[in-house]
Write a structure and sequence with these properties.
By secondary structure, this protein is of the alpha+beta class. Helix content is about 20%, strand content about 35%. β2 and β3 form a beta hairpin.
Length: about 140
């Protein structure tokens, strides 16, 4: 089941997947509490969060847009399509809220996943210290 959840419901998964070995608070982002932001989670049958994503209204190069970040799926559940479902639910929600352009700083290791969902690269690869190589991806929703 995918639902909108409070930020605290997804921090543990984010930390485990995206910030392994770092303090739990390293998985909290300034944008998380920005007005209009929302957090989606896929819960398993026991109610545990096994996939998540956060969407935030954030312009890209002066154009109105929505940024997503903190997308994570539990390692034991990868390959089941949960990340795809959470991402699609977020895109539908953004479109329903009047959004047209969605973007993210994607890990290079996840490019194939995002390409399958219609995202295209914008600009060159850049490094986020301590996290690794990333590239900006964009996609229009309607």
């Amino acid at each position: 089941m995918i639902e909108e959840v409070p930020l605290d419901d997804i921090i543990d998964l984010r930390c485990r997947v995206l910030r392994p070995g770092l303090p739990r608070d390293s998985a909290r982002f300034v944008e998380d509490r920005r007005p209009g932001s929302f957090h989606l989670a896929y819960r398993d049958d026991a109610g545990g969060v096994v996939s998540c994503v956060t969407f935030v209204p954030e312009d890209l190069d002066g154009m109105p847009a929505w940024r997503f970040r903190g997308m994570a799926t539990d390692e034991a559940r990868r390959g089941e399509g949960l990340g795809s479902q959470v991402l699609k639910a977020g895109l539908v929600t953004v479109a329903a809220r009047g959004g047209g352009l969605v973007w993210c700083n994607a890990r290079v290791s996840a490019l194939d996943f995002y390409r399958r969902h219609g995202f295209t690269e914008r600009g060159d690869v850049f490094d986020i210290p301590g996290i690794g190589p990333h590239v900006i991806l964009t996609r229009h929703v309607d």
